[in-house]
Design a protein that fits this description.
Radius of gyration: 32 Å
Order of helices and strands: HHEHEEEHEHHEHEHHEHEH
Structural class: alpha/beta
Strand content: 15-25%
Strand order of the largest sheet: 1-2-3-5-4-6-7-8-9
CATH topology: Rossmann fold
Number of domains: 1
CATH architecture: 3-Layer(aba) Sandwich
């Protein structure tokens, strides 16, 4: 082979080796960088879901230890004997927040006099308050859960004070929580859904606190609820699976969030802002986990339901459908309807209260006296 050809072949070989080495080095560098990048990539952090703790399943698992119930300033100091009960502001703690409310404590009737209603028309059709002090010296308790009230017009006891007065005159302690953001309570967290989902928590913490009230028989506890308070009461019954006898006046029983969207047609923005909040919630959460309609099978308490046929706030149809579900589930309930009665039972109020007195007498007094 000619010398110049050998030189040419050597040069070509060196060129090939150089090109191969260059690309091999580049490949090695890229692979090394890729491996190092994988090693340095942080583990993805799940999106925080602070409202997950409020699902009915999670609320059912947590503890409700209760707190002291502190009785403060009187509300009827000048008329207590006439009313037949002492009414005061009370406070308890729900988790780390203070909640205020109205407490009524019965004054036992004497042999010479009986307490009379401050509004004679109110008690015109209801039985005169006749009861005796329980043998153990402690009163049965009714937790009163009001419906929606605009914050600007709210006063402690609004929505419950009339019925609470009659129950107190008949020997029941009544506890009507204001809820966070109302009365003298602390403010809720700055989230519309936290505020809503925390309402049953406040009720469950109050129920757990009754054992710390010296005048109360913590084995004899019932619930009275009106309108949206009915939704809160049913939530508490489903979460706790306790048998607190419960009476519901025109309760909100539709699924969440439909039940709240139904009422937005009268908003100034026709519900635009609330729909935006619902969309935000549904992006990260399964809203059925916060809805009473998915947990009706967990109710073990006896229920008494009242519904006016002329109710424009909670349609008559809602209660009919709700009762049909209770019937299918073979729950313990009584259902009363009142022709032409409105959302507040106007025209039938006395009859409703009379039935509630009989209901609570059956479950909270007959076995203890």
């Amino acid at each position: 082979m000619k010398p110049w050809l050998i030189v040419l072949l050597v040069i070509l070989l060196l060129i090939i080796l150089g090109i191969g080495g260059y690309f091999g080095y580049q490949y090695y560098q890229s692979r090394t960088a890729h491996v190092l990048s994988l090693q340095n990539t942080p583990t993805p952090v799940p999106t925080p879901k602070p409202l997950e703790k409020f699902t009915f399943d999670n609320l059912s698992k947590r503890d409700y230890s209760g707190s002291a119930i502190e009785i403060r300033e009187p509300l009827n100091a000048d008329t207590a004997q006439e009313d037949g009960y002492n009414s005061s502001v009370f406070f308890f703690n729900s988790d780390d927040k203070k909640v205020s409310g109205q407490i009524n404590i019965p004054i036992p009737p004497t042999s010479n006099s009986e307490p009379e209603a401050t509004d004679s028309a109110q008690m015109a059709e209801t039985p005169a308050p006749v009861w005796t002090m329980p043998a153990n010296g402690k009163f049965p308790v009714i937790v009163m859960i009001r419906g929606f009230v605009d914050r600007d017009m709210y006063q402690t006891g609004i929505g419950t004070n009339r019925a609470a007065g009659v129950l107190a005159q008949n020997g029941y302690i009544t506890l009507s929580p204001d809820f966070l953001g109302y009365g003298q309570s602390d403010m809720p967290e700055n989230d519309v859904w936290w505020e809503r989902f925390n309402n049953p928590v406040q009720v469950l913490n109050l129920l757990a606190s009754i054992k710390n009230l010296p005048q109360a028989d913590s084995d004899k506890i019932g619930i009275w609820a009106h309108s949206n308070g009915g939704q809160i009461a049913l939530s508490a019954l489903e979460i706790s699976q306790k048998d607190y006898p419960t009476t519901l006046w025109a309760p909100v029983t539709k699924p969440f969030p439909f039940a709240i969207l139904f009422f937005t047609d009268e908003f100034e923005d026709e519900g635009k802002a609330l729909r935006s909040e619902v969309a935000r919630l549904e992006k990260d959460y399964d809203v059925r986990k916060y809805s009473i309609t998915d947990y009706l099978d967990r109710i073990i308490a006896p229920l008494q339901i009242h519904q006016g046929t002329a109710d424009e706030a909670v349609p008559f149809k809602w209660s009919n459908e709700f009762v049909a579900k209770l019937k299918n589930l073979k729950k313990d309930y009584k259902y009363y309807t009142y022709p032409n009665a409105d959302h507040n039972m106007a025209g039938s109020w006395n009859k409703v209260v009379e039935r509630d007195l009989a209901f609570f007498e059956k479950y909270l007094k007959e076995t203890s006296e």
